[in-house]
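Because showing beats explaining, we let one protein speak, sequence and backbone structure tokens together, and leave readers to judge.
___
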Amino acid sequence: MHMGNLMDLTPRLNFASRDRARAGDRWGPRTIPDWQIFSVVSGEALLKLGRQTYRIRPGESVLYGPNSPHDLSAEQPTEYFSFHFSWHETSPAPVHPAYRIQNVPAGALMTRPESCGIFVPGVGEVELPPHFPTGGLDALMLRMVKEYHDEAAGNYFLLRAMLMELLVLLIRQLARQPNGAPVSKIEPALAAIRDNPGAKWTVCRLAEMCGYHPSYFTGLFFQEVGQNPKEYLIAERVRQAKTALLKGEPVEQIAESLGYASIHYFSSSFKKATGLSPSEFKQNPATLVQLLAAKS
């Protein structure tokens, strides 16, 4: 189904929740009257949609619309976000989908689900897949749930704005993917470390940025990068320290900007990683060649 031009969207949020499901809880087989984003925070869920089965892990979401029979179930105790919405509505006032949800026979799951595409100016047609990563969007989702349930003055219009923000961020992520390559599930954490290596990053804080449980985040981090978060942080600090040293920046300034408590601690960490002290690194002409070679 083609949703038209991104510039012309007038979406409406019909329902928003953050809830927990027990292992074995099930929704379906059924159809819904609008579109739904189901996003797992912790645990694991399973979606049967058409002839496909999607395993939804923390930091991942699924999307499906009306006339798309589906069967959704929790494989283990699962915490999740659920959003029902429409793409084009004149009024932003929510219309709860519950009374128009219909149970369907199991055989209906063989029906081909509706696809979802939208035209993005400057990019072209972007296809929204049924299953995709949404790490880093938990804070926005929490705001949407809170605003939906608070029912404060003017909340319908604020909900429309938040929903539009969520949809644009999802579309932007998907539009960035080269040749269908998946977006990194830990990109918010990687970007934070690159942009501010001197911060006192903890696994819990980085995991929260990506919307994952710390233990799951650590495993996912190693899977994508080949290092644990602490190792990656140290390596990034050393990389930026090398660049700063070759630019002639004072060692004291470098140590402070990279979060080291003292020059001694910085020098010790730098030598452990490179085999040279900061001063030796600056004085060794080969270090510049090595650095340039590492970047090429």
In short: Residues 291-296 have pLDDT under 50 and may be disordered. Residues 155-176 form the longest helix (22 residues). DSSP finds ten helices and 13 strands in the chain. The CA atoms of residues 63 and 129 lie 7 Å apart.
